[in-house]
Specification:
Blueprint: H1 2-12, E1 23-33, E2 36-43, E3 50-56, H2 75-78, E4 90-92, E5 108-109, E6 115-116, E7 120-122, H3 131-140, E8 143-146, H4 152-163, E9 176-177, E10 194-198, E11 204-209, H5 210-215, H6 224-227, E12 229-230, E13 235-236, H7 241-250, E14 255-259, E15 265-270, H8 271-279, E16 298-301, H9 305-317, E17 321-324, H10 332-344, E18 349-355, H11 358-367, E19 371-374, H12 384-388, H13 394-407, E20 412-415, H14 421-429, E21 434-437, E22 452-454, E23 457-463, H15 468-473, H16 476-480, E24 493-497, H17 502-520, H18 525-533, E25 539-541, H19 544-550
Parallel strand pairs: 7-8, 7-21, 8-16, 9-10, 13-14, 16-17, 17-18, 18-19, 19-20, 20-21
Antiparallel strand pairs: 1-2, 2-3, 4-25, 5-6, 10-11, 11-12, 14-15, 22-23, 23-24
Helix pairs in contact: 3-4, 3-17, 4-9, 11-13, 14-17
Bound molecules: 1,4-dihydronicotinamide adenine dinucleotide (NAI), xanthosine-5'-monophosphate (XMP) and potassium ion.
Organism: Acorus gramineus (Dwarf sweet flag)
Function: Catalyzes the conversion of inosine 5'-phosphate (IMP) to xanthosine 5'-phosphate (XMP), the first committed and rate-limiting step in the de novo synthesis of guanine nucleotides, and therefore plays an important role in the regulation of cell growth.
Protein name: Inosine-5'-monophosphate dehydrogenase
């Protein structure tokens, strides 16, 4: 509150004699609230003057001069000195806390029109985002972007899979039979508690519970219609997880199918599923769902002619937002594609990128993007800066692009280089509205692929989309169709340790992010961005030794656990 009042005050009322003062002019500005007095100091600075602020709750007990120490740099000054900084290079100075951690609100916008409860996005990479990851991200309040290293119909069926689920994980639907079919073996149930009995249209007619089938001696020879419970209780697909769980408890059911408007089963929620979901820590924020109760999902596409046909399929399948996936988004191809998307699907938000400079960003904004993805060579698997000598330190890139994008109200995604909760805080406070993560989510249960053991550790494969292996798998068309027929990798193939479920570690991570916001005195993303742009937020560059000091040091052995 105090900071917001202060920022508003500053925006409205700059000290009149600011330019004439040399430096160290201090004095009380106003008693803005009962216990707080603010002091303002102006100082000459190249190229333009700025204002730094100090505040104290009980100024009478403090030395007047100490309140006015010029401490740290404003972002504007720090990022204009010709250095390319990344997250680890910079550190925020703490500010003032007047609210609890839980009061921090991380609601944000992915694009102009799409809002999220949490600022997290999974990267469109074939070892990060398929339907399981997208469902998990949306259930947490973020969003997943499905990769496109596959055929258009494969990518569309991933969208359909996300849209057809209500649980934050993908389980196999129960097997279904027609009314005249027999269930001749217990194996026909698979791991499901029932077999669905459906009409030819797919409409649910009833189900045969495993317990009923086991209790009947003639079950193997009877048609399913004689064994089924007709008109079984079901919930509509627009019913969210909590309401479905309540229904199960109220009706004392072990499981309940969810059906769409045509009566076709889209999911089956069991008591076990409810317990599993409830075992995960909860942040208490709404999932990312549309008006129809379905999870929202994004999809990546390229900028080639054939990508227009892919886009058509993705839109039909229900994609809620598209990401034009390129390492250097400021191209004639991307500008053409942005215009095509806006012309053909005016209701569909399009994210452009990747960009790292204000010039690149402005070009894509002029072309009509609804969101910008920022990062070139900053990803854990990226070799672009080594191979092409082009890119930018991620902290500088996020600050520069976000500063220009904010003028047009275009939200920014800080993509790549996220290795811990502190990096997320830095990305968001430097102006991003969301963070996109690859390696941070790879290795989780929800990432595609299977676990394997390497040197005694359980790991999952994680690879760059510009690695030779990924290019060979699906994107030959992208590369071999190019005028140059030689393939040069801009990414590597590696592995990431098993991290467990995103449903478990993301809530803890986001709580840590809230603690960072609290230390800065920012109760929301908007408040953080206001602090940044009003220069109240102060930063410094950390020397190499300061970075070492900021980490764990001087121990022979230790275990690092976040929760
Ligand atoms: N964020 C980053 O730092 C990087 C990301 N990547 C990832 O690797 C993957 C591949 O990235 P890129 O190679 O940049 O993909 P891209 O599809 O943008 O570009 C591949 C090549 O095709 C050309 N191209 C694109 N559209 C064209 C058209 N309509 N006509 C003719 N030529 C056209 C491009 O100029 C480029 O030479 C993406 O998933 C990207 O996210 C790769 C390198 C760096
Ligand atoms: O130079 C690159 N070569 C690649 O092969 C590659 N594949 C992905 N990406 C980008 O890296 C981001 C993920 O980075 P993190 O693992 O650090 O989260 C992703 O979100 C992408 O922006 C690549 N960059
Ligand atoms: K890198």
């Amino acid at each position: 509150m105090i900071r917001e009042t202060l920022i508003n005050f500053l925006n409205k009322k700059k000290p009149r004699k600011e330019k004439k003062r040399e430096t160290h002019q201090t004095g009380p500005v106003s008693n803005l609230c009962n216990s707080t007095t603010f002091y303002i100091k102006t100082h000459r600075q190249n190229p333009k003057p700025s204002i730094s602020l100090s505040l104290s709750l009980s100024p009478s007990t403090m030395d007047f001069d100490k309140l006015c120490i010029d401490d740290g740099f404003a972002a504007d000054r720090l990022f204009n000195q010709g250095f390319s900084y990344t997250y680890d290079d910079v550190i925020f100075l703490p500010h003032f806390i007047d609210f609890p951690t839980d009061a921090v609100d991380l609601r944000t916008n992915l694009t102009r029109n799409l809002s999220l409860s949490l600022p997290i996005v999974s990267s469109p990479m074939d070892t990060v985002t398929e339907s399981s990851m997208a469902v998990s991200m949306a259930s947490l309040g973020g969003i997943g972007i499905l990769h496109y290293n596959n055929t258009p119909s494969e990518q569309s069926s991933l969208i359909r899979s996300v849209k057809s689920r209500r649980l934050p994980f993908i389980t196999d639907l129960p097997p279904s039979v027609s009314p005249s079919d027999q269930i001749s073996s217990a194996d026909d149930f698979g791991s499901s508690p029932c077999v669905l009995v459906t009409a030819e249209s797919g409409r649910l007619l009833g189900f045969v519970a495993r317990s009923d089938w086991e209790a009947r001696s003639d079950a193997r020879d009877a048609p399913a219609k004689d064994l089924m419970r007709p008109s079984p209780p079901s919930v509509t697909a627009s019913c969210d997880f909590e309401r479905t769980a309540e229904f199960l408890a109220r009706e004392a059911l072990d499981f309940v199918p969810t059906v769409d408007d045509d009566g076709v089963v889209v999911d089956l929620v069991t008591k076990g599923d409810v317990e599993r979901v409830r075992r995960h820590p909860r942040l208490g924020v709404p999932p990312t769902v549309g008006e129809d109760g379905r999870f929202l999902v994004g999809a990546a596409v390229g900028t080639r002619e054939e990508d227009k046909r892919r886009l058509e399929e993705l839109v039909k399948a229900g994609a809620d937002v598209v990401v034009l996936d390129s390492s250097q988004g400021n191209s004639i191809y991307q500008i053409e594609m942005i215009k095509h998307v806006k012309r053909t699907y005016p209701g569909l938000d399009v994210i452009g990128g990747n960009v790292v400079t204000a010039y690149q960003a402005e070009n894509l904004i002029q072309a009509g993007v609804d969101g910008l993805r920022v990062g070139m060579g900053s990803g854990s698997i990226c070799t672009t800066q080594e191979v092409c000598a082009v890119g930018r330190g991620q902290a500088t890139a996020v600050y520069k692009v976000a500063s220009i994008a904010a003028r047009s109200g275009v939200p920014v995604i800080a993509d790549g280089g996220i290795g811990n909760s502190g990096h997320i805080v830095k990305a968001l406070v430097l102006g991003a509205s969301t963070v996109m993560m690859g390696s941070f989510l790879a290795g989780s249960h929800e990432a595609p692929g299977v676990y394997e053991f390497r040197d005694g550790s359980r790991v999952k494969k994680y690879r760059g989309m510009g690695s030779l292996e990924a290019m060979k798998k699906g994107s030959d068309a992208r590369y071999l169709g190019d005028t140059s027929k030689l393939k040069v990798a801009q990414g590597v193939v590696g592995a990431v340790a098993d991290k467990g479920s995103t449903l478990n570690f993301i809530p803890y991570t986001m709580h840590a992010v809230k603690q960072g916001f609290q230390d800065l005195g920012a109760s929301s993303l908007k408040s953080a961005h206001d602090l940044l742009r009003s220069s109240v937020l102060r930063l410094e560059v950390r020397s190499g030794a300061a970075q070492v000091e900021g980490g764990v040091h001087g121990l022979v052995k230790y275990e690092k656990k976040l929760f």
